[in-house]
């Protein structure tokens, strides 16, 4: 697939959104910026500016009146900051996610936000506890829960098996953000594994750079 025309299309869509943006318009703008970042990665272009923009849009959308359990927004902001390689923003968004009460959320998506935040902050014992609670659920992807738990536990073998499962799940799905077929969750897990010192080469896949 040629990714460059897709990058150009998404960049044009992002720039076309002018004027005052309400909460949902900010979410859509963040989605487009994030997709532009992913396609830029696949096209081997600089992607960091798009991920930074996506995170900022999602953060702003929360302040504009998001529901108190709109956990996808802090998750997206953290993922984008990790993919941008921006340590300052990673810390900022991770601390924000925990301030929102994600670690004690009843929702598995809230707990997912907490696990990402705790791993990003290097609070591995707490991250392992939260990740293990996700492993016990049937309403959360097992591969992702396993990957979070094994990163927290510094389990290299378990991590490799888990992240391969995550990549496979992306290869076999039909639904992607903005129709951009990229295994962003695997890339985020790889970034967290690098911070933990257990990163291994990701599998060769059409949904990875």
Radius of gyration: 16 Å
What's the CATH class, please? Answer: Mainly Alpha
Strand content of the residues, in percent? under 5%
Unreliable spans are none
**Number of strand elements:** 0
**What is the straight-line distance between the termini?**
12 Å
Order of helices and strands: HHHHHHHHHH
CATH architecture descriptor text: Alpha Horseshoe
Helical element count? 10
Shape: globular
CATH topology: Serine Threonine Protein Phosphatase 5, Tetratricopeptide repeat
Taking all residues together, what is the mean pLDDT? 95
Q: Could you say which structural class the secondary elements and strand pairing correspond to?
A: mainly alpha
Number of domains: 1
Residues in helices, as a percent range: 55-70%
Largest sheet: none
Keywords:
209 residues; mainly alpha; Serine Threonine Protein Phosphatase 5, Tetratricopeptide repeat; 10 helices
Structure notes:
The protein is mainly alpha-helical and 209 residues long. It has a single domain, classed as Serine Threonine Protein Phosphatase 5, Tetratricopeptide repeat, CATH 1.25.40. The protein is 67% helix and 0% strand. The chain has ten helices and no strands. The chain has helices spanning 4-15, 23-42, 48-63, 72-84, 87-99, 108-120, 124-135, 142-152, 156-171, 184-196. Helix 4 packs antiparallel against helix 5 (87-99), helix 6 runs antiparallel to helix 7 and helix 9 runs antiparallel to helix 10. The longest helix is centred in the N-terminal third of the chain and has 20 residues, at 23-42. The protein is globular, with a radius of gyration of 16 Å. The chain starts with a helix and ends in a 13-residue tail after the last helix.
